[in-house]
Design a protein that fits this description.
heterodimer, A: 776 residues, alpha/beta, FAD/NAD(P)-binding domain, eleven-stranded mixed beta sheet, five-stranded parallel beta sheet, rod-shaped, B: alpha/beta, Alpha-Beta Plaits, TIM Barrel, eight-stranded parallel beta sheet, globular
Chain lengths: 776, 544
């Protein structure tokens, strides 16, 4: 076999083009037979010259004449040299694994696509997507692509290795030898080029200075390239170093995304420059717009804590018609000032023991915040009973202003007492022979020990020396009183019992008469007693009747009885029957005949359907309304000089009567001192602000006033317990001593974050959170 | 509540609330940050009494009771202070000791949010997480049978046209006659929908505007933003950035005197004028900016007194039919800028949308039609309007597009779809689906708030208190104490991130379809859905 002769493999047989498969078989066969120089007269066959490993290390030269098809030299081996004597079609050197492929002309798209080793020499220019997806395996030398002319578009996409050299001679586009959008996704290798370019993917690649080592490699290999393609005359022109440039892939570290302007720089140099200082709304506001954290202090807080000490009344005081500051008394006891706590009551009521201790239904206890959690209310009756020992306060000198008080019951005594405490004389006139009104005359002994009431009345007499009993006053007398006194107060109560206009009504005894006579044992009711009207007075009658020997006691009413509390329990305790609805038609010797025809047998029939005032003695200047005296909110009647208080205005509890006396006294004092009357009643605290969790819920009774005081939540009034100071997570709250036993708790705005812990943890509900003042 | 307290019909237990606070005594340090940050005061410090019955094991001594008091966090059950689940407590808790959890059963609160006869009002969105858009798939993957495109490598023209496009022959005729050719803008297909200055806080609004300017000037993306109905700051009106802005006019006409005064001083024309007739989130409800959001700044921009509530009526006054309204408003708004600025109406999606569209096809001035679906967001609305009024955007948009196809005008009047696009985070997929159903572009609001500003609202009842000015992220607050939590620069940066990422995702969808030089508007043969009824209704493939 002549090794110098080319073995010709024609691409056509018998006038017919060989299939690529057949040509490949013949080429492989020729190599197997020992041919090392083969000429293929190609007719567009695919993949000529690749995969010819059979020669081992022995060199193999494949010359291609005619028209090579696509993928010339694909999967070429290092032993193979392929020389295409004219231009080549797509994908020259595809997946080239070491062959040297020479194209003596242009090559179309996809030259060296995915090439990993070997060389591709192109004596002209190449089409699109040359040198794309190329590799570099460290076991081998890098692949090389040499192009004498220029590269087409999308050159070097995803190039991962190898060296491309674009010489720019007779470039297809002399203005851009690298084509449109080259090197997108390039991660490895380098590209030497000569001539202008139209940009490349700067995020993937960058221009790099050509080192001496690079230049040496380039010039040496350039000579070889030019020799191979037979253009050595170009060497001088191409050896001008300054005309060459080198692009290398960016390393992963270097591969920063295209450097963009920061937003803050954009704001400064673009946004604010166009809009003006302060940006979008800098002309409309100079408000600080800098950013703030979620947790803030000072004026940035949405809420601020407020120490509302004694701003609101506790429910006990707010619901006490007399207005006794019950919580203050417990505070004094907690502070060990028991005497002061006891004495304090007399500033509000002349009957702290009789009323608070015995006769009052104790609205303060009913409303006690502790009740809201099913806890036993603080027991005021203990403190009330202790008040029997209270010291009479020192009296101020009298002012000269004088008030006549008509009626010596609880209302009249209350106002006289209050006026005297305020330094004004008061003179009491009463029709009865005893002071104290209904308290003295009608309330059964069972409800209050006689000595307690006596002791309090004695204390009252010591303070109010001017009491005129058994004084029946007429209209003229009142006129005279108006002349003699600065003010006249009507506190005559309800003295006229109401009755029923039924046959036999003369057989009935009025309840008040019954009670007054019973108190002195001057009545024998017999065994059977029927009481018409089952209110609390009716209950008192029942109890007294029982005491006086009655066995069968019945209370009837036209509706569900209104009686309640101690009176009702007492009556039920003595076995009294309550019947309703029952309508009395007639009173006979037998008893009470009802509308139903039934007769309730009775030895004594008592009528207890309420009392109305006797207004006969009042001057015409005092107007009445529905049988009672009409007053304004200060208990002033339509005659400005005359005030009216107690049941004559509106029937109520003893504490109501005492309270009206206190309020009217305040009004009179203000007027006497040249001012205008005013109501200064604070609001009741929202009890949900109070924390009862600090107290033992299992206490059902109190062993003494000290235990009562300890268990009082002191709603709305600081107990000085220091819980707020302790619970504050920022240490913002501190206690400031203001001298004279006064103090306050304050929250430092610079430390406080407005968490509201103080308000939530305060046992007394003193701290609260309010919205901070608006910032804009 | 206290055991002895009176209960009322609206006395609720924690169990009855939609959100329940789980608090760990073991982890809590009582730092107070959760109660300080809670926007609705739903939590407070609590005082707890703990009882231990102390019994000796061998009964060696008398049993006793031990009481301890401890402090912790307590959830309020008063409907007025119900937890909205925003989770700010969890955000500030240094020890992860607190977290709101959604109730495991139907809440009872909803029956009590009508105290005093006032029905529930809120902000946010419809509480309905699902939607047809998320179910639509893109089926037509070209692979190598068509020229394959690579989203990462190829260049894409992700642009759309806003404006009336005349048929070529008509266009040529008008050119010959030197007549008026409607203005057309080439813009990015993702438009930031109308959110007013007032509904949004100053840093939010500025951040969005600045981000849009950045996208245009630094990134080369022609993104546009609608002002919503609340006017426009005077400086923006007089800046070159106005080019990126779609000025919205709606029934309240807020801020329009300032805009009119600025016209002679404008450096550039605005992108377009959007006439708002309806809002998909709350059709027929009208707008309301509560008085506590109307501060000095808002009053200056809107041209109204401070501290007054600002209603936008659900109807435009002085207009008596949609035909009249559209014709009259479009003419007026064109005149303001010398017929150089496209004007288009925005309506809420409705079964009567076709009537409006057909009207527009006969009006050569109509620059497009924006259709807003029921899943859109709002700053304030009646809950009933939000949850029960409205029309899904997909079928409404589709009907409109097919109607245009029927008329042969599908390339002439661009349709823009809005309302719930990306509501579950699938912005690009939802947008692409609507584009392939026939939209020329989409409008988004809520997604922007969530992505660019960290809005914590959700379609499962979270937060949604935009209406009361207590936005914990400062997005919809007008109180500096809240809105200064938000930094405009951060908003702008996130907006840029969002748009750039969206752009890549959109390419990832359209590239396999073989589209790179024009949006695949109406390319519904690429769409499929595993729901036969939806497939039939939308005219797309049913696939399983």
């Amino acid at each position: 076999m002549d090794q110098q002769q080319y073995h010709l493999i024609p691409g056509r047989q018998d006038g017919t083009r060989l299939e690529s498969r057949v040509l490949e078989e013949r080429l492989q066969e020729a190599v197997a037979k020992g041919h090392r120089k083969i000429e293929v007269a190609a007719l567009g066959q695919h993949g000529i010259g690749g995969r010819l490993w059979r020669t081992g290390d022995e060199a193999l030269h494949v010359r291609v004449t005619g028209h090579s098809g696509q993928r010339l030299g694909s999967m070429g081996f290092p032993n193979t040299r392929i020389e295409n004597m004219g231009p080549a079609s797509d994908d020259v050197g595809w997946l080239n694994a070491g062959a040297e492929i020479v194209v003596h002309g242009d090559a179309t798209n996809g030259v060296a696509n995915a090439m990993a080793q070997g060389r591709v020499y192109v004596a002209g220019s190449i089409g699109a997507r040359g040198m794309t997806m190329t590799k570099r395996n460290p076991r081998f030398d890098p692949p090389e692509l040499w192009v004498l002319g220029s590269a087409g578009d999308y050159f070097g996409e995803f190039m991962a290795g190898g060296i491309a050299v674009i010489c720019g001679i007779e470039a297809k586009n002399p203005d851009n030898v690298l084509g449109y959008r080259p090197l997108v996704g390039m991660v490895g290798g380098k590209v030497f080029f000569r001539g202008p370019h139209g940009g490349y993917s700067k995020s993937d690649a960058r221009l790099t200075p050509i080192s001496d080592q690079d230049w040496q490699w380039l010039t040496e290999n350039l000579k070889r390239f030019l020799k191979t393609i037979g253009r050595t005359e170009l060497y001088e022109e191409l050896a001008e170093r300054e005309r060459w440039q080198l692009i290398a892939a960016r390393s992963p570290q270097d591969k920063v995304v295209q450097k963009t302007r920061s937003i803050s720089e954009f704001r400064q140099s673009v946004w604010n420059r166009e809009l003006g200082p302060g940006g979008l709304i800098g002309d409309l506001t100079d408000m600080d717009m800098s950013s703030i954290p979620l947790i803030v202090t000072g004026e940035l807080r949405r809420f601020v804590p407020v120490w509302e000490n004694r701003v609101y009344d506790p429910p006990c005081r707010a619901t006490c018609p007399t207005g006794i500051p019950v919580h203050e008394r417990w505070r004094l006891i907690r502070e060990g000032r028991v005497d002061e706590a006891v004495d304090m009551a007399l500033a509000y009521t002349p009957f702290p023991a009789s009323v608070c201790g015995y006769l009052c239904p104790n609205l303060c206890m009913e409303s006690c915040t502790r009740q809201s959690a099913n806890m036993a209310p603080v027991d005021i009756t203990q403190l009330g009973k202790a008040s029997i020992e209270a010291k009479t306060p020192e009296m101020p000198p009298v002012s000269g202003k004088k008030t006549a008080v008509i009626g010596g019951g609880p209302a009249g005594i209350s106002i006289a007492w209050q006026l005297r405490l305020a330094g004004h004389d008061a003179v009491i006139f009463d029709v009865s022979d005893t002071l104290g009104g209904k308290m003295s005359r009608l309330i059964p002994q069972a409800r209050i020990p006689g000595e307690v009431l006596d002791a309090e009345l004695k204390r009252i007499r010591s303070l109010l020396p001017h009491v005129h009993l058994q004084q029946q006053l007429s209209k003229d007398d009142i006129k005279q009183l108006k002349t003699d006194y600065d003010f006249v107060v009507v506190a005559a109560g309800t003295t006229k019992p109401r009755t029923l206009e039924i046959p036999g009504r003369e057989r009935m005894i009025f309840a008040n008469d019954f009670l007054a006579r019973a108190k002195h044992g001057r009545i024998e009711p017999g065994e059977k007693v029927v009481i018409i009207g089952a209110g609390n007075v009716g209950c008192d009658v029942a109890v007294e009747a029982d005491r006086l020997g009655a066995k069968d006691i019945t209370l009837i009413d036209v509706q569900k009885p209104a009686s309640f509390g101690k009176e009702r329990r007492h009556a039920e305790g003595v076995g009294a029957k309550f019947l309703w609805p029952r309508f009395a038609r007639q009173i006979t010797d037998e008893g009470v005949v009802l509308e139903s025809g039934e007769t309730l047998p009775a030895d004594t029939v008592v009528i207890s359907v309420g009392d109305v005032p006797d207004l006969e003695f009042l001057p015409d200047s005092v107007e009445a309304e529905k049988g009672f005296v009409k007053v304004n909110e200060y208990f002033q009647t339509t005659d400005p000089q005359i005030f009216a208080i107690g049941d004559i205005v509106q029937p109520g509890l003893l504490t109501d009567a005492i309270g009206t006396g206190r309020k009217a006294a305040a009004a009179i004092t203000r007027i006497a001192e040249g001012g205008r009357p005013a109501l200064d009643k604070p609001q009741m605290i929202d009890v949900s602000r109070v924390s009862l969790e600090y107290f033992d819920p299992r206490i059902t009774g109190f062993s003494g006033v000290e235990q009562c005081a300890t268990n009082c939540a002191s709603c709305g009034a600081c107990r000085d317990c220091g819980i707020c100071e302790t619970v504050c997570p920022r240490g913002a709250i501190s206690r400031t001593d203001l001298g004279d036993d006064a103090y306050e708790y304050v929250a430092d705005p610079e430390l406080c974050i407005a968490c509201g812990f103080c308000a939530a943890a305060c046992p007394c509900g003193v701290w609260t959170m309010r919205e901070n003042d608006p910032l804009n | 509540m206290s055991a002895n307290a009176k209960i009322t019909p609206s006395t609720l237990s924690i169990k009855d609330l939609p959100w329940q606070i789980a608090w760990s005594q073991e982890k809590c340090t009582l730092c107070g940050q959760c109660t300080a940050v809670c926007p609705v005061n739903a939590i407070e410090a609590g005082v707890f009494r703990k009882r231990i019955v102390d019994v000796d094991i061998n009964a060696d001594r008398q049993p006793g009771n031990v009481y301890k008091v401890y402090h912790g966090i307590r959830q309020r059950t008063d409907p007025a202070y119900h937890c909205v689940g925003c989770g700010m407590c969890a955000m500030v808790c240094p020890n992860d000791a607190i977290m709101p959890y959604h109730s495991d059963e139907a809440e009872k609160l909803k029956f009590h949010l009508n105290q005093g006869g006032q029905p529930e009002r809120r902000g946010g969105r419809r509480n309905a997480p699902s939607g047809v858009l998320d179910q639509i798939k893109f089926l037509r993957i070209s692979m190598l049978t068509d020229p394959a495109l690579d989203a990462g490598r190829h260049e894409f023209e992700m642009r759309t046209l806003l404006g009336r496009i005349l048929p070529p022959e008509q266009n040529m005729e008008i050119v010959r006659q030197r007549g008026w050719i409607p203005p057309v803008r080439e813009i990015y297909p993702l438009i930031i929908g109308g959110m007013s200055f007032g509904a949004l806080s100053p840093p939010m609004w500025e951040g969005l505007q600045m981000g849009v300017a950045y996208l245009n000037e630094e990134m080369g993306m022609p993104v546009r933003i609608s002002t919503g109905e609340g006017g426009c700051p005077p400086r923006l009106l007089r800046s070159r950035f106005l080019r990126y802005v779609i000025l919205q006019i709606a029934s309240g006409y807020f801020g329009w005197d300032e805009i009119i005064h600025a016209i002679p001083e404008m450096k550039v024309d605005p992108c377009a004028i959007e006439i708002k007739y309806g809002q998909g989130a709350k059709p027929g409800d009208g707008g309301l900016l509560m008085w506590h959001k109307v501060n000095e700044l808002i009053s200056a921009i809107r041209g109204v007194p401070m501290g007054v509530s600002l209603p936008s009526p659900p109807t435009h006054q002085t207009k008596y039919s949609i035909e009249e309204a559209v014709a009259k408003m479009i003419q007026s708004m064109y005149m303001a800028w010398g017929f150089r600025v496209p004007v288009y109406p925005k309506i809420s999606a409705t079964s009567t949308a076709l009537a409006v569209l057909n009207n527009l096809t006969r009006n050569p001035y109509a620059a497009g039609l924006a259709i807003d679906g029921e899943d859109g967001g709002t700053g304030a609305a009646y809950n009933v309007s939000m949850d029960h009024m409205g029309h899904p955007v997909a079928s409404c948009l589709r009907d409109c597009y097919l109607n245009l196809v029927h008329l042969g005008q599908q390339n002439e009047i661009p349709l823009f779809a809005g309302g719930g696009i990306g509501k579950n985070g699938n912005l690009a997929a939802n947008a692409a689906a609507l584009i392939m159903l026939g939209a020329s572009g989409v409008q988004v609001g809520k997604y922007v708030m969530q992505a660019a500003a960290g809005c914590v609202g959700s379609e499962t009842q979270r937060c949604n208190i935009c209406n009361i000015g207590q936005c914990p992220k400062g997005i919809t607050a007008q109180d500096p104490r809240l809105y200064r939590r938000l930094d405009a620069d951060d908003v702008a940066q996130r907006l840029v991130d969002m748009f750039v990422a969206f752009d890549t995702e959109l390419r990832k969808i359209v590239a396999p379809l073989g589209r790179s030089t024009s949006l695949p508007i109406g390319m519904s043969d690429a769409l499929g859905i595993g729901d036969k009824a939806a497939a039939d209704r939308l005219g797309i493939k049913y696939v399983v």
